[in-house]
Design a protein that fits this description.
Number of helices: 12
Number of strands: 12
Largest sheet: 5 strands, antiparallel
Strand content: 15-25%
Shape: elongated
Radius of gyration: 42 Å
Order of helices and strands: HHHEEHHHEEEHHEHHEEHEEHEE
Strand order of the largest sheet: 2-1-5-4-3
Length: 436
């Protein structure tokens, strides 16, 4: 009803005007004056009502323009006002969403350990659109909205950015901060531009901090390599020691048990020396020792590795299947055996939860190549990660170090061969290819 109020006032004014004209013709001046006054009053009311709607709409639109969303306007069954109210609440919702996203993005950027500054160009002048605390902390400067103010605080840095012409660049530079010794930094600039805006993203990171992080990572990786080899050696050795303890606790030690004790002690002694050699090789740097080449029997290596892990196979109820051609290769026996043990340990882990646990070893020749393969009936490797299994320190195990396959691959490559993985319908197959 309110939307038609002004129209009603206009109609009443017209009706009063008609009566006033009729009274004019009849020379009834008092009636004429009365209806003429009523017509003018109705016209004034119509104007006030129409102007009120316009003013309310203008007030709402002005608050949208200034992003002042403190009003709580209501609909009044007036198209102009109702549309303005609808636009107001729509703009308010969008503004709140943008504010939430802005707060989230700024919080994420504020947590970065890399210094970040974003410049925006306005009227041929650069202004600071955003800068995170890390950036200010690195250069030990306050935050300014005007980019030109940084020229006095960090003239060297300011000059370098200008020399990039605010385009894409990457470089290292040395600057002195607060007249201290010069420090090295890694600087990257990235231009982002659309039809309306142009931005320059500046990232800054201390080279010393990068080096420290790399050194720490390298040290951690080295420790993982060493601990991995320790576990690979000590796990079967521990099984052998438990077996020896069991035999030693018997009242009478049979001759067969004595032979088993001697064999176990020989294996423990051999693996202890192997472990000591490994620790010595990796004590200074995490580099693979150079192979000591000689002609060796692959069958003997397989049997030695299987014998070393025999307690693990028996404990886990694993069936061992061999198909071994008598082949010799020119290689380092200890390194090849280490590689093979790594593959066996992975196979043991793969079949751990299977009802039928089988590990098959095969030696054969193909196209003037000797292939030594280890195949298991385990869970297999997910397709999504098959291209990552040889990456250093990549592992899906909670307690794994992720260097077993990496070391094995490096060992075989040091022998001018290669190690590859072949997925099976049920299980996995790793193949070691040697030159014949």
């Amino acid at each position: 009803m309110n939307r038609y109020t002004w129209l009603i006032f206009i109609l009443l004014a017209i009706v009063c005007g008609i009566f006033a004209f009729d009274f004019y013709i009849q020379n009834k001046w008092i009636n004429l004056s009365l209806f003429a006054l009523m017509s003018i009053i109705f016209i004034i009311f119509a104007k006030i009502h129409a102007t009120s709607s316009i003013q309310k709409s203008e007030k709402i639109l002005l608050s949208i323009q200034k992003k002042d969303f403190s009003l709580f306007p209501k609909t009044e069954q007036n198209n102009l006002i109702d549309n303005a109210v609808k636009l107001y609440y729509q703009s308010k919702e969008e503004h709140l969403s943008l504010s939430s996203y802005k707060l989230l993005y700024e919080e994420i950027l504020n947590q970065l350990e890399i210094g970040l500054m974003i410049l925006t160009e306005k009227k041929a002048e650069w202004e600071v659109f955003y800068v995170n605390p890390t950036f200010l902390e690195i250069l030990q400067i306050p935050r300014y909205n005007s980019w030109n103010l940084y020229e006095d605080k960090t003239p060297d840095f300011y000059k370098i950015i200008q020399q990039t012409n605010y385009e894409n660049s990457q470089e290292f530079f040395d600057i002195s901060i607060n007249e201290n010794v010069k420090q090295s930094f890694s600087l990257r600039t990235k231009k982002v531009q659309n039809i309306k805006n142009r931005f320059c993203i500046i990232s800054l990171e201390s080279v010393q901090k990068i080096i420290e992080q790399k050194e720490k990572l390298a040290w951690n990786n080295l420790m993982k390599v060493i601990s991995h080899e320790l576990l690979n050696t000590l796990t079967p050795v521990n099984s052998l020691i438990q077996n020896l303890e069991y035999i030693a606790n018997q009242d009478v030690v049979e001759k067969e048990d004595q032979e088993e004790m001697k064999e176990s002690l020989m294996i423990i002694n051999s693996k202890s020396k192997q472990l000591l050699n490994f620790v010595d090789d990796y004590r200074q740097v995490a580099e693979l020792p150079k192979p000591v080449f000689k002609t060796i029997s692959l069958t003997n290596i397989v049997e030695s590795a299987l014998n070393f892990l025999k307690p693990e196979f028996e404990k886990n109820g694993i069936t061992i299947v061999n198909s071994l051609e008598d082949q010799t290769v020119f290689a380092d026996q200890k390194m090849i055996e280490r590689c093979l043990i790594n593959l066996y340990l992975n196979a043991i882990y793969a079949v751990a939860d299977e009802s039928e646990k089988t590990i098959k070893t095969e030696i054969k020749t193909f196209n003037k190549r000797i292939i030594l393969s280890v195949e298991d009936s385990g869970i297999g490797i997910q397709k999504e990660i098959q291209d990552k299994i040889f990456l250093p320190f990549f592992t899906t195990r909670i307690s794994g170090s992720g260097i077993g396959l990496t070391l094995s691959k490096s060992i075989i490559e040091a022998h001018k061969g290669y190690l590859n993985y072949k997925p099976l319908k049920e299980g996995s197959r790793f193949e070691i290819w040697f030159l014949k």
